[in-house]
Structure formats: structure tokens, C-alpha cells
Amino acid sequence: MTVPKKWRMALAASCFSLLALGCAMESPKGTQYAIVYGVSIYENNLGKSQSHNLAYPDVDAQSINDMLVSHGYLQKNVILRLNQAATIGQFRTDVAAIAAKTKAADSVLFYFSGHGTTKNDFTGISSSSDTDYILFNFEGTAIRFTSSFLQSFALDTDQVDTLLRSVPATQRTAILDSCFSGGFLAPTDSVDGIPQDASGGVPSPSLSTTVTKPLIRYFSGSGSAANPVLYISAAGSLEESFEGDDLGHGFFTYFLLKSPSGADSDGNGIISASEAYDYARTNLTNYLEQTGAASGYPLFEPHISDGAVDTVLFNAD
Prior knowledge:
By secondary structure, the protein is α/β, with parallel strands linked by helices. Helices cover 28% and strands 18% of the residues.
């Protein structure tokens, strides 16, 4: 199917950071686990040509799985769920299974590619407060643009964070390639200095800019004693993210997949969360400004959350 331009959006009338502490990282002394979800087909028995479905999240997730396994992870420690297997209930089960066997020295990565939405956008009912969600497979249920539907088939920011915090690993990272995913970072936690809506072409800061706030927090002792989940989002809380045939992936994921060969800035053989973020953000921005704009794609920017430590993602090439 040809999808020249597709929003990673909610299924409504209009359509998912990490700390950058600039120190060298060492390989985790424990086991590396990952939970990888990709939802292209949201409604059972419907092909990808249906308007509620996407073209590339399942390809994204399969590629992330393969990249992890070829860069330090054991396949038995990577849970991959695609399309109909990627349900909200299965995600809760998978997190519980990982939590039951992880120790503090281990690391856990959650990757999601698919629809993201906000409550206001999904229901079409505006309110002064809004909530961000990632949307799982519908399990054959007809879509309804209501709050009750979201409660059944989506998880909001607090729910995802609570589940991931139940895992006792010290290093916990979430990478979300979906619309409005910057909403999974509290405004005070985003350390990249990029507006949540970059459509105005606001210049992006360099990685050196992103480390200032967390360094101050860390050395002042104001960072969380229990390391938070570190989030990387493909887009801001007010932005849609995109996929397309020109790259054959979600745009952010396409450049994330290339990070093992280009993001090892300190040459230690390991790709940290801050390195992967900076590499993917820089290359995505360059692509959108040089090539994507000509195809009608607006500028959108990944974000990275605050925290007390950087995390190790995978080995470099």
C-alpha cells in the first residue's frame, strides 16, 4: 500500500526522554531486557488500507527487536508483540513477567510504535486539562471516540509510568514513537529545551545544552533517589509524528535504528540513551528541514526527560 504521508495520530477527526548526563557509560552488569510493541493493524480482520490502521509500526518494532538482538540482547530476553498480540492486557502481563525476574543491576527498555493521542483530541471534547495516551490493539471492538474506549484500549502517562516503575531494575528506559508522545514527559522533566510545538522552526539545542539541568540537579542532590523511568519521545506533546514510504519506517525510528553506527560519540562501544537521542534528533531534524519539508511534512522534534543517570541502550557497531 502506498502511504506517502501518515500521521501517528489518534483515531479522531484530527489525528509517543531521557536524561542526558554527559558521562561515559559502562555495560550493565546485569541482564538487558526489552519489551517491544508495534501496532499497525488496530482492528482485527482489517487490512492496512483501513483508515484506522498504520503502515509501519509493526515493521518498526520488528526492526528494533532485530537491532537489539544483534547489539547485545539475547532474544529470550526481548518480548516482541505485533498488531493483534499487542493488547493492553498483554502489556500488563509482559511488564509483570519482566518485573518478576529483574534485579537492580539489570536494565529494561520499553519501545512502542503506534498511535498516540490526547483525551481532548480523541473525544473531540475540549477541557482545560488534557491527558496523553498510547493506543493498543482494539481486539476486534468497533472504535468509539469516547473516554470509556480509551480506558479499555489505551494507557495514559501515569499508568505507563506506574507499570514501568514496578520493574526493580535501576535502568529503565521508554522510547515512544507516536503522536503527542512528549506528553509522557512532565513539562518540568524535559531537559532538551525544545518547545512542545516546534512547527515555528525554533532552533534545537545541542546535546551539551541538554545536560546542564540534570547535572545541576544531580550534584545538588535534588535528583530522585529512586531513578525515574527515562523517556525519549518522537514528538512534542502538541505534535504529530510521521511515517512514510520514503523511509519505510516511522521517521524517528528510522534514525534510531541507525544510531549503533553513528551515535557512539565517546567511542566506548556503547550507545547510551542521551547519545541515541541526540543522534536521532539531529538527523531527523536535518531530514525534515532538507527533504521532508519538500514532501509536505511539518517540523516535529523528539524530546528527552530529566533523571539522575543516563542509561545504556545497546552496543555500538
